[in-house]
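Memo to structure team: turn this sequence into structure tokens by end of day. - J.P.
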Amino acid sequence: MENILTGLCGTGPEDPLPLWVRGSVGHCFNQLTLNAIPHAILAAVSACFLGTPRSGSGVPRRPGWRCRIAASFTLTGLFLADIIPATISQQELGPVYLEVLASGIAALTWLTHGVALLMLCRSIHGSTRGPAALALLTLLPLPSLIITLVWYCQRGTAWSPAHPAVSSRFTILCLQLASLLVYVISYLLPTTERHEFLSINSSWQQDQLISEPGTSLSGQQRVAEDGESWLSCFFYAWMNPLMERGYQWKLNQPQDVYLLPRQLQAARVCDRFYACWQKKAALHQVEEETVSLTSPIIAAGDGSSDVRDSLHRAQEPVRLFSVLHAVFGLRFYLLGLLKLAGSLLSFSGPLLLNLLVNFMESRQEPLSHGVLYALGLFAGSFVGALLRNQFSYEVNKMTLMVRAAVISAIYRKALRVGSTRLSRFTVGEIVNFMSTDASRLVNFCLSFHEVWSLPFQFAITLYLLYQQVGVAFLGGLALALLLVPINKVIANRIMMSNKEMLQHKDARVKLMTEFLRGIRVIKFYAWEKHFSTRINACRAKELQKLRAIKYLDAVCVYLWAALPVVVSIVIFITYVLLGHQLTATKVFTALALVGMLILPLNSFPWVLNGTLEAKVSLDRIQRFLELEDQDLEAYYALGSPSGTASAIEMRGADFSWAPVKEDSTSQPLSTGTLQLHIENLSVRKGMLLGVVGKVGSGKSSLLAAITGELIKQGGQVYVCDLEQGFGLATQEPWIQFATVRENILFGRDYDARLYEEVVEACALSEDLNILPAGDQTEVGENGVTLSGGQKARIALARAVYQEKELYLLDDPLAAVDADVANHLMRKCILGVLQHKTRILCTHRTEFLEKADALLLMDNGRIVKTGTPADILPLVEAIPKFKDVDKRQKDKAPDEQSQEEDIETEAEESSQDNHLLHKEEEKKEGAVAFQVYKAYWLAVGSCLALSILFSLLLMQASRNVSDWWLSHWISSISKTANTSVMVCSASLPSAELLLFSAVGLVSPVQALDTAPVPSNSSADVNFYLMVYGSIAGANSLFTIFRAFLFAYGTIRAAIVIHNRLLQRVIKATVTFFDTTPTGRILNRFSSDLYCVDDTLPFILNIFLANMYGLLGMLVIITYGLPWIGLVLLPLAALYFSIQRYYRRTSRELKRLYSLTLSPIYTHFSETLSGLSSIRAMRAAERFELENQLHLEQNQRCLFASNTAMQWLDIRLQMIGVAVVTAIAGIAIIQHQKDLGNPGLISSFTTTETMMVSVERTEEYTTDIPVEPQDKVVQVAADWPSRGLVEFQHVVLAYRAGLPNALDGVSFTVYPGEKVGIVGRTGSGKSTLFLALFRMLELKAGRILLDGVDSRLVGLEELRSRLAIIPQDPFLFSGSIRENLDPQGKRTDAELHEVLEQCHLRDAVTQMGGLDSELGERGKSLSVGQRQLVCLARALLTQAKVLCIDEATASVDQRTDQLLQQTIRQRFADKTVLTIAHRLNTVLDSDRVLVMQAGRAAELDSPSSLSQKEGSLFQRLLRSGQQ
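Reply from structure team:
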């Protein structure tokens, strides 16, 4: 280096770059450091703007640009011209090489700058002044020019004719200054306003995107990052407008966030991913291709499909990992290079510092060396910071791509898997694949590069350590390596616990889902206690594992914190024992390196763990992706076996719900599941085929077999027009969480004529008129705000609107009254659909007379086919009431549309713009102090204080040990004025800022080095003893703190979950009607996971960093009081950046949580409606919707990640500035990144995690809760008589809505049977809600045996009444649990009840009382589920029984038997029945007719039917037409 400098400058080797020569700045120093280097910097930055894209629109240019571009090119010419006289007059100004070098660099720089300005002028910057940084940098060469000018004037050689070369150079210099002045003035000319720039900006963006279909860009929706210059990309300048909006509270909805860069857009990522997947699948399939080509031809021969199946099973599945690897691998590995460069640069810090310390100690080296070291430090830390920051940014982008690919792959698979196979996984599990498992895969992307970089760092550190202390390092290393296996063992234990914890979490979320689905019924039955104990049992198991994890974690933390101290002591002892001398440089460098050594050692097991966790998750997802898809080609035959006229044919076809695996073993298991065997079935095109049979005979299974949802075990199935799909109306109507119109259109375009026709045919016109916003009314989740009849009709309308050729209708008439059923038959099934092929399953046999043919099914076989005249007599119920009305025989009319839960929910949502669901609230502003307080209280004040105190002790002891070291060293070299402080650039602890207390204040004056006094062994022993004991105390405090912290966070997790669960269980029904399950579940899964796991982790780091910073400040100010001058402005800058960032980051995290719920809600909705989606061939549209939800969420996540990088680079730059300033002055050496950026970023992360506490907190404080008080203690057998009195009852669903019951008064006497009838929305179901106090009365009262129900505790009240609700609700568990959750009954009683409900055989076939029902009672048919609910009611000894249209899905014979059972069992009890088929009311004691929320008539059925003009008579007549 010296040689090069002496050659260039022509100076002596002892001072190659003199700073001061003969009273002015040295010419060589001026040309190199003040001219060449600033020009080089300007050139580098200008080059960053060379790639700026042109703007499409004609952006108005500012006048200043032309002058600046001209000035730049003029300067290029001038510097080139300067080379000529410089070479001619060689001796005038010094060596010729130096001049050529300086002028050449300058000319090149201005050329680059000019071109960059041209590019900028044509881009969107054209209307502004352009980047300010660029303009400021042009001023950097100014000092050099001025110094040269002054120099000319001093020498007086400016205008000497004797030296023409010199004069011309002086002229050129003046011109250069003039050009620079022109440049600056033209930059300062007035500009257009900033907001105009923004609008131009968005218009430019629109031009860019106009080609992409469907992207409407409102206001300022910019695309992130694309087309930005390098500089903007390195420093995230493109994020500034977004950060500003966040700071002004303008980020309120996902649309306010930038669009994703093109390469990250979900659609593009998924296309790449699937293309690759297909390629791999094709490779796997090549060998079978021949078979699959011939198979359709062989398909005519029997049994061929089995061959095909076996081939399918043999096929090797595509591995998810290999596809991800193929798509993203290359780019991912290239990022490794960034990581490598960053890691290497992190070592440059300690090495240069070492040199710098030596330089200051030796006093021999020239100053220029010091300057070079300082510059090297600056360059190393600057470039290192940039590289590390870019690395994490790029990895974040990778993770987004992987996440998009994995989530959409899971969704896509769910749409394609046969539903029989899908049932192996619960909905909860599949949703977990999407949330937990996907995020673990994503974390793997982050930890993968650590896997190789950690050992690499380790090796380099060891080498450096060896150079410092020789062989002594082996002692410390041995100790450190001993810990690796210990760490591995701990890590393994944590892995195991983690896996188990996830299983318990799955179970808990699944239970929670069931609980929320059946919340109404659970409240009716007062089973909250039972469910909360079940949920808490799961939670307890989960917490047990969490506890294990946290305590093991604490041990790890302890080892991590204590290790550096112990290792360094061991090293020093070994070193001294080997007879060496400890010097300041050695101690500090060794300490810094040991610190660097510990990081890889400790994090390695975690990184491995992360990798293993990702492996577990990958396998789980892989297992799901390996499920067999529905293979329609193999399922359906290609040609019709007999002729063209048939729409459907089946020959010798066998189907089952459960896949047959090993034929022998699984046979007994599947006895409970129905096997379907169709010998011969042919359906002509255009015919109406009725399917009848008793409950559980296989009617719905037949339809499932036609749509391909069952597993075919043999035979042939032919359906014409397969591609077109089916019009399917399932027995349990599936309604989407959207408006009524969107539900009916189901993705097709709106055709007004057809739409009107369909709505009319499905008898929806009146309903739509009642609904507040007509067909724009939002329906709740699963259609919760509609009555059962409305749901069924909307599902039917959806099927009809699809205009398919083949319609499969599964009992759409069950839930509607006679009037409506007639209308549907006439206008819809025999009207709009008259030319289509229709298969109608129903129990309402009176409507089947018009059918072309009927099938009678029993036990999965077709028993008989024939005309209605042949078959109907076999299934007709024995008419009971011939005396009442002869014509009743064929038409037992069905009363009233089932109005599930809520009739007036119709008027219900008239506010809120008819959108029923409140948009999920997003709290704005800082996380409220309330929330921090809630967390503090959840931990417990005492505990929280003791945690903080132990942290304080730990930090203090650490600082004392550092002080002791510096004291020891200053005593060794009392006389030698040493000034030392070395630390690494990437040290885990921020505390090793040490200096010798004496030498720091005046390091430069002492140039003499006194001999070092003898380092006597007694001295060393004393010092090491004290150091060791301080370190021991430190490690004790550390372990104390680690365990206290773990204990505290677990306590918080317990408290928060309990509060949340208690609140949700006690919430009112209205809350559940207006809040989607997905949203509540989100609180219980991902938000709780944050509170359990992520928050403590980050809080821990935050506290450690905070105390670390405090400790560091204390030491620095002790050693060097006036460092405050540097720290104060920095603190101010920090604080402003941090406040700026915190607002935005918080809003983004909130938006991210907000856009996450729809993904899960949409997914679970899809899973529940799979059969409809597939039958109507809408799978692709749903996939697209999922992509849109995902895209929204990814936008917020991307913005939130980038905001972190934005902050990070700014804090790093502050760190770099500090380092450079301090090293430059060489007063105090570089420490980590003085100012510890770790602190800020972890505080802000803590705050974003607190958002999760806030969300759970919001539910524990903001949910309306049912009154929990009870005033009266009632007798154990109350109500003993069963007297029910309604007195002037007034009730509304919510404040501001019309009254659903409007002054209802009536009395039901003990033991009386009362039927309740009335049109839809007349308030029938509301009577029950009032009786059970699901809603509180506005006025009036309800008396049971003379006691006001409001004075009785809710649980008591509900447990003393029995209800058979309309929706059969079963939860997963055994039949025994479903009948009797509290476990109070004997088996004999249960069997007796099942016998009475005609379920005994079905249950025995399934395997007895302890056989599992599966999620939502999957293994029973809908009718059987209703029977189970009836059995439940029979078990209660209640005196008052409420029946809400309980037998809608039961065939007539069973229905009559049930009515008989009810009459016998409840002979002495009061029974209120909401009428279902009018004949069920005709033998009741009295009938109550409801109209518009009032009790209109109450009398015996016979007198009411005789009374002219009575409402009841009208109802009877309408049922008999």
